[in-house]
Amino acid sequence: MFEIMKRKDIIRQIIIVLAGAVLTTACSSSDKEEVTPPAKRTVMVYMAAENSLSSYAQQDINEMIDGVKSISKWDNLIVFVDRASTREKPFIIRLRDDKNAPADTIRKYEQDFVSSDPERMKEVLSWMMSNYPADDYGLVMWGHANGWVIMDANRRAIAVDTGNNSTSGAGVWLEVPDFRKVLEALPHPLKFIFADCCNVQNVEVAYELKDVIQYLIASPAAIPGTGAPYKMIVPDLFTYDDNQLCNKVCTDYHDIVDNENGHLPIAAIRTSAMPQLAAATKKILKSIYETNTPINVDGLIYYYRYSYKPEENVMYDINDFLLRHAQEADYQEWLTAFNAAIVCKKMSKKWEVQGGLDFDFGEITEERFGGVSMFIPLERYENTLLKYNELIKQTAWYQAVGWSELGW
Questions:
Q1: Residues 321-353: tens digit of each pLDDT
Q2: What are the DSSP E strand ranges found in 2-85?
Q3: How far apart are CA 374 and CA 341, in angstroms?
Q4: What is the value of pTM for the model shown?
Q5: Which sign, positive or negative, has the C-alpha torsion 363, 368, 374, 380?
Q6: Phi, psi at 144, each rounded to 5°
Q7: In contact, 157 and 171? CB cutoff 8 Å
Q8: Helix H segments across 197-327?
């Protein structure tokens, strides 16, 4: 009797094992897709590297692979890559803490395309969101940028793509207003954008994106070609206290860059405060210009230099400009609105200015440094190849702060 029961138990166990095998086979997929619950956060990296930055892309991917070891396995780091290579089409990878497959290719495109095309960008980001759902989403913009500056038909604000797999800096760019439209069309809103690009942190960009993101983390100046220290930045991006996230990213990026005893100036803006900042800026500009206060930008902190003849400094620090030109009471009122928008800022006494190295800013202090740039219309810009005084009219910030009412 014991032997008969023993054999029945063995048969029962075999049936259970076989049934489990059948279920496992039925749930498997040959395309590597996983059935997982929504993540707490999906961070998408849009690596627009079909340009002169192409050689830095793999280095940053490797740093991201190191950084992803410190995030939850249920969170997602998804990277779109478009490099300057005739042997490679754009692709999307998921980075995980898996020594056997740290960079799992989850999508390959059959044809090359221009990554700065707004329809393509929208398709890529929408696909990432749909296939890797989460409670919230962040975006890393990786590549070249000129901030708010709208150049000509072939050179615009962000994400330049040469279109021919060359490693030049010329090609088709994406204007910031079109970038906003891309983000508006996504299936889910973005918590933040971390811009690993030059000159993005200016009030014109932050105001344009105020309704589609909650935080903009970026530098007003030129960033190093090697980009952010992603081994540290990746874990920072999965910090779930918003203020801590902004402070960690700013601190880690600022501290790692050492350029002739200087660091990377960087700031984080809370975009919900941008309407109030625009209103305060409109009020203080009206006071400055209607009282005929002489405008003197000599020695002011600036972040961009127009590199064609004649050379001109552009993108002045908004705080430094208003500190010099406004009455004390007006400035303190404006500063309250500015501080409400600034989550954090990291100062440096030296940094690289796009268009050439220049550190002649006088004595930079915390009082002067705002970490955010603003365009100041000047008569001398009428003599530059790019008519900045006309280009600024295409920004929403121009209307919001009343430049036209002041004669510009």
A1: 999 999 999 999 999 999 999 999 999 887 766
A2: 39-49, 76-83
A3: 14
A4: 0.88
A5: negative
A6: -90, 160
A7: no
A8: 203-208, 230-237, 242-256, 274-290, 318-325
